[in-house]
Amino acid sequence: MNHLQISTDPTLLGADLLPESLTTSPSVSTFLPEEDASTCLLLPETPSPPLDFSHPLTPSMGNATDNHVRDSVTGDDDQAAETSSSSGSSGIGMVAPVGAGAANLFSHNSYQHLRKKSDVVKAGQDGSMHHAASLGIAVTKDMPGFVHWNWPLIRKCTFFVFLALIVAMVGIVVAMIATLPKSCNPPATWYKGSVFYEVFPASFQDTNDDGLGDIRGLIGRAEYFKTLGIGAVRLNSIFPSKHYPDHFQEVTSLLDVDEVLGKVEDVQKLAATLHERNISLVLDLPIHPFLEHLSPPTIDLDRLPNRTDGDMITSEFLRLSRSITTKPESGTVVSDVLRFWLTRTGVDGFYVKGLEHFADDPLLVENVKEWKYLLGPDRILMVGQKFVEQLPERTVRDVLSQVDLVDVYLDVSNGTDGIASTVQDAIQGRLLRGVDHPWIHWSLGSVSERRLTSGLSPNATLAATLMELTLPGTPSIFYGDEISLEEANDPKGEHVDTQHLHHLAAMVWDSAQNQFTSRGSLPWLPRSASASLHHLDYVIEAIALRKRSPSIYQNAVVKEGQMLPNTDIKSNQNEILVIQRWYPRRNSFATVANLGPKRVSLDLTAMFYSGEIVAGSSLKHERVYFDRFEINPLETIVINPMLNHYLALNNTRIEPAIVRNEEMANK
């Protein structure tokens, strides 16, 4: 038995069965005494691998033999133990130089690492690499450059950069979500579908205690306009006259403000104040009887570029505006008047009144084109319905293509049949035949018409106003109609000389606010008989509903360049008016107005099944059924209905039926 516990008995090895050459070859006896020889049968020509070979990235898998070798290592790298045998058994002999580097190979879980450059000793002249005993593998100058990078610092920086990017992306997503619109309604130009508010400045608010309203009073009421939710304030005549405001129609200049109202600078400040609240300012421009005829255009439109970029100010516009350094004489052309007010005050449009007297003027089309060019696409040109009706057929298209709004007066005194006829004529007439045609501007009151409450209950004004706010186009509220303001009260006949102006009574304000003028002053007209301030909430509610509902503020449905109506008007002889409004993929609305003196019960099941009240009644959000829909006299209710789908699909027109009319009247 040798030290490996392997038997050397020839009988066990079966030597008699082996060739003689193998049994007689040198074996144990030929080794030196201090050397251990392997008794394993090795091929004569197979060299033994060196003990110091190891893959630099392979860990040592330690065992008992490794420990024996590690324990037997002594001395430095130049010392080695040698064993030899005869030439016939050269494959058995091994040379095993073992140093500190080799010892690491045999250690348990020992890995080889790349070292820093500073730890490496340059190679000697013989090409051998010398290094410290603690080094595993030397890093030479031939190594790639990235080996010498500061990888711990790089990992830290990469982590924090990645974390910062994640935080930034989360912040961007949150900001995008927070800025998303609450609704996805189709957009509309500022004057399309919004509500205008017409004001007679002398009767709105007095600030200098002279009994007459002024421009500064309008500035002080800017928050009131914002509360209403209107889109524009339209000022009636503010120009100097022989005796303003009693004879405000007798204008003496179109390029100044009457001294009773203030100065041009006040109008500029008013426009800026309103613009801060996203409200526009429009001026009435009464050219008749101030002008007797239209003058030739001042610019050649054929040589100027199209005003389609939304920029009002062009080089040609500025050149022409510089020439107006002083106020021109009364005979100045309308174009000069527009330039003056645009450059001095920044107003957003004009209602040119009295154009019907120039319908046959040969220079009309050229003048209208020039006016619209000066205004640009973002400012409006407004005309009256009478002017459109008197236009020759040859000029209708050319004129209407330059006009943005057409004012249509809605005479409630004609009853529901008259209202329905006016609305149908406006929708199906000249005004909505093309995409480029103007929108309708509805008016229930004006400086030339009496108040709706004249001879009627104040509820008549509220019912008519709520009905108007659901019509297609751009509705207008005459100042005071939102609170059912009545005409000036003169029971003793002390103001007969101003009786034609009594519908322009001073505005009434809530007791918590400043009144029209101070207590020590009297308004220029007798005070109004009464005003229903609680009606204001209903009007504000209806305006807010209009602003958020495309079915109401959209004039029509535009599909493939065609204007498809989104309004249906129904009426009968019993002063009942039903208006249906709809828009694709939006809520539809039904406005039921009773403009008669009796309470009625309607059977509307031919059109609707049920619905929810959304405006016009104290029973807001109440569920209603249309088999017996009851409505009070002089009342308008806006409902979000559930349509009769069969009739809607077949476009069936059914008139509302009146049930128990006399019975309700008796009650």
TrEMBL record:
Segments crossing the lipid bilayer: 159-180
Region (Disordered): 43-92
Tagged with keyword Phosphoprotein: no
Listed GO biological process terms: carbohydrate metabolic process
InterPro entries xref list: GH, GH13_cat_dom
Domain of life: Eukaryota
Domain Glycosyl hydrolase family 13 catalytic: 198-513
Keywords: Membrane, Signal, Transmembrane, Transmembrane helix
SMART domains found in the cross-reference section: Aamy (SM00642)
Pfam families, alphabetized: Alpha-amylase (PF00128)
Record keyword Transmembrane present: yes
Name of the protein in its database record: Glycosyl hydrolase family 13 catalytic domain-containing protein
Annotated source species: Anopheles melas
